[in-house]
Amino acid sequence: MLTPDLPANFFLSSTTAGACASISSEIAYTPGLETSQIEVMVENGRICLRGTAPDLHAIGQAVAIASEIVGYDVRNRIALRRRG
Predict the structure, then answer these.
(1) Would the pTM of this model clear 0.90, i.e. be above it?
(2) The BON domain covers which part of the protein (predicted)?
(3) Residue 4 scores a pLDDT above 80
(4) Domain-embedded: residue 69
């Protein structure tokens, strides 16, 4: 049975949304990242991480989490949060 009238990129979009949700959730619940403010965007086969993190270790953790998703390149745009 054929799938009725779904857009050509329907399954890609579903997979993309799933990847984004999975990364965001894992970042939110990883010890050391709970104070980070990281936005995850997935588009055109690329995961982009943006926002701030308290230290370089936290940035590395977030990038490692995103890198676990097979089939996507990861672009890190996370900045260190200024203290003060």
Answers:
(1) no
(2) 20-81
(3) no
(4) yes
Residue 11 pLDDT greater than 50, yes or no: no
- Higher-scoring residue by pLDDT: 59, 69: 59
**Structure-token pair, residue 12:** 């890609």
What is the rounded CA–CA span in Å between residue 84 and residue 17? 35
Residues 28-33: contacts with CB within 8 Å, 24+ apart? 30/61, 30/65, 32/57, 32/58, 32/61, 33/58, 33/61, 33/62
Number of domains composing the chain: 1
35 contacts 27 by C-beta, under 8 angstroms:
no
Residue 18 lies inside a defined structural domain of this protein? no
Residue at 31 is within a domain:
no
- Residues found in the chain: 84
Domain of residue 64, residue span: 36-84
